[in-house]
Amino acid sequence: MLFRLLCQATDFNPADSIVNLKPAGTSGEAITVDVTTTNGNKKETRQDGVFTGDFTVNDTGEYAVLLDVGQKMARKWQLTIDGKEIINFKNHWLPPTTSTLIKLTAGKHEMVVTGEKNDLPVVYYRKVTYETVFRSPVANKLDYVVFAGNSDAVISSYRNLTGQAPLMPIWSLGYIHCRERFKTQDELLENARAFRYKKLPMDLIVQDWQYWGKYGWNSMKFDEELFPDPSKMVKELHQMNMRLMLSVWSKIDKESVLGKEFGNKKYYIPSTEWVDFFNPDAAHFYWKNFSEKLLKPYEIDAWWQDATEPENDDLVGRRINNGTMPGEQMRNVYPMYVTKTVYEGSRKDAPDKRVFVLTRSGFSGQQRYAAAVWTGDVGNDWETLRRQLSFLRWFQLATFSPLQRVHGYKTDTEFWRFGEKVEAESLKYLNFRYRLMPYIYSQAADITFKNGTLMRPLIMDFPNDTKALEQKYEYMFGSAFLVAPVVSEGVENWDVYLPENQSGWFNFWTGKQYKGGQTVQTAASLSTIPLYVKSGSIIPIGEKMQYTNEKPAENLEIRIYTGANGKFELYEDEGTNYNYEKGAFSMIPFEWNEEKQTLTIGKRKGKSFNGLIENRVFNIVWVDELNGIGLENGKTNVSVKYNGSSITIRRK
To answer: Which position among 377, 423, 543, 624 bears the catalytic label?
Structure first.
């Protein structure tokens, strides 16, 4: 069961008990670091400050504790209670608050908070109770919607209410290459060419901020000294079968030519440079410029909508939509209005191209605007890895995430820049991702057509397995894969809990079968992510490719993990347009019957489309310890010609 609160600014299980903290001096030496701000890169001097206080609790038990640093952005969270460190985390950019659960005995407790010296920290606490409390400091009323049922039913009901997720373009599910930014057109193209020369698969390359140069922040114009011919750049990328994603913000420099137009029309959130997307006229004018200055002239393929919060909580205390609404009531909804503007405008002005928006923030219902939300601007240490994840461990996780993307702050993130070993291991997981594309794209279609979920916490498939619910990092990737990312440094083996599953599990790398309901030690060298497949799974595997539409899937390997009945629906369409909305797609059902030892490939569903494979070959592989293991092709047990009609194959 899931409770959704229809309100824009809400306290969840609020705590009213407060620890009064007093400054107690500074700690360590002042250091100067490079940071990004809403006005670009700059240097910032940091000095730790120490704050102390005490509090008393009447009852022994578990308590929720929330630290608020008292600034719009935190740089460090460090909380110690009675000499025991409770929270210790730092990054260039952090939200102002963080919380945790701790056990306290009745009596007095000493607290120390270490943060930035200009912080004004406040700590809130409350005893944990078995109830859920919502309240809003700004809303006029609270409305509640209750979704009942198992996890999939809850998600399905939620999407039925808030909006269906359209299919992303297939190329968005391939590798997305990104760095803090390419500084010039030549630099971007040089690196794009290197991917093809080195035969490292890639579909989408990203140009992050500051390409606008002298023209001002997000002026929707390339500085020709840096990017002399954007049309030629995009054309060359397209000739290499790559796409371009461009960073376009929701703020515009007020001193730029475009910014002055927005200012004259009063299309800004007052006293900020953020566009007031709650004003329909402002949103329309934003898209008009967006389309005429970027989309149409250059045929750019995808959009990076950065800082869609907006940053620094700049809606608070300001009236929006021509002064008719208080901004703090709509503070969490802003990113949805931004992506709505881009999605609806793109569907109108480029109707034959699927929209793909990457955004830093989201809100309920934003999935209907083809918006993917990334995990926020994070650091690259092991604690960060454990909170969300060496480079290779991150990339292994990305392979089994909805999007596979690399990014870095002030880092040239191309694989070859980290040495031959990293390049070789990265190629391994790039090939893995692309060979899994028939599986991944079919799971994406399951989201659109059946309200499915690709990245699945274990509660979704094993709600009655208490041990499974205790796992912090394991998850299911689609219906088949149990993923157990390594979140510690220097390990060769990793304990993996296999959830209770009567038919058991297969180690993907070895083919060995295990019973469910047990923890198994799994090989986890730097080149290996622990990976298991649920018995009864049917997994289509394609060929190695340099980009998602390089080869037609005429010969697919179909791996059957026996031990239980299983189903899978292979989905295909044109991949880049919206013809699927008119029925132009192919769905081929596969069903394994464990008792009869038969695989039935059912009648194809859907209408004809450009690229439909009328006649094809499925190479069936029965997985065991000798066949169908790891990334290499399995030995075909039986080859089946399929023309769209139902066929049944018995395992011999």
So the answer is: 377
The burial of 45, by beta-carbon neighbours within 10 Å (0-12 exposed, 13-18 middle, 19 or more buried), is given as: exposed
**pLDDT tens, position by position, 97-113:** 899 999 999 999 999 99
List the helix and strand counts (H, then E) for the chain.
12, 38
As a whole number of angstroms, the distance between CA 64 and CA 101 comes to: 5
Q: Do residues 300 and 59 lie in contact, with contact meaning Cβ atoms separated by under 8 Å?
A: no
From the candidates 273, 276, 309, 574, give the one annotated as an active-site residue: 309
Options 48, 253, 301, 306, the catalytic residue: 306
Catalytic annotation on 309? yes
d(C-alpha 442, C-alpha 436), whole Å:
10
d(CA 340, CA 367): 10
Neighbours of 53 (CB within 10 A): 18
Indicate if 229 belongs to the active site. Answer: no
Share of the chain above pLDDT 90, in %: 76
As beta bridge partners, residue 572 has 586
Q: Which residue bears the tokens 């039913």?
A: 153
pLDDT tens-place string over residues 515-529: 999 999 999 998 999
Q: Residue by residue, what is the 3-state secondary structure of 204-261? A: EEEECCCCCHHHCCCCCCCCCCCCCCHHHHHHHHHHCCCEEEEECCCECCCCCHHHHH
Q: What is the mean pLDDT of the chain?
A: 91
Note whether 173 and 403 are within 8 A (CB): yes
**Run of H or E residues at 349:** helix 334-349
CA distances for 173 relative to 360, 372, 435, 436, 643, angstroms: 18, 11, 12, 10, 28
Confidence bin at 2 (pLDDT 50/70/90): very low
Total residues belonging to the chain: 652
Buried b (16+ CB within 10 A) or exposed e, 611-645: ebbeebebbbbbbeeeebbeeeebebbeebebebe
Percent of the chain with pLDDT over 70: 93
Does residue 89 or residue 567 have the better pLDDT? Answer: 567
> Is 11 noted as a catalytic residue in this protein?
no
**DSSP labels for 324-336?**
TEEGGGGTTTHHH
Would you state the pLDDT for residue 94?
80
Residue 155: its H or E element? helix 151-162
35, two tokens: 């940071």
CB atoms within 10 A of CB 101: 10
Cβ-proximal residues to 294 (8 Å cutoff; 6+ apart), any chain: 220, 246, 248, 300
Rounded mean pLDDT, 62-87: 92
pLDDT tens sequence across 152-200? 999 999 999 999 999 999 999 999 999 889 999 999 999 999 999 999 9
Q: Supply the pTM of this predicted model.
A: 0.91
CB 270 within 8 A of CB 319: yes
The reported pLDDT for the residue numbered 7 is 42
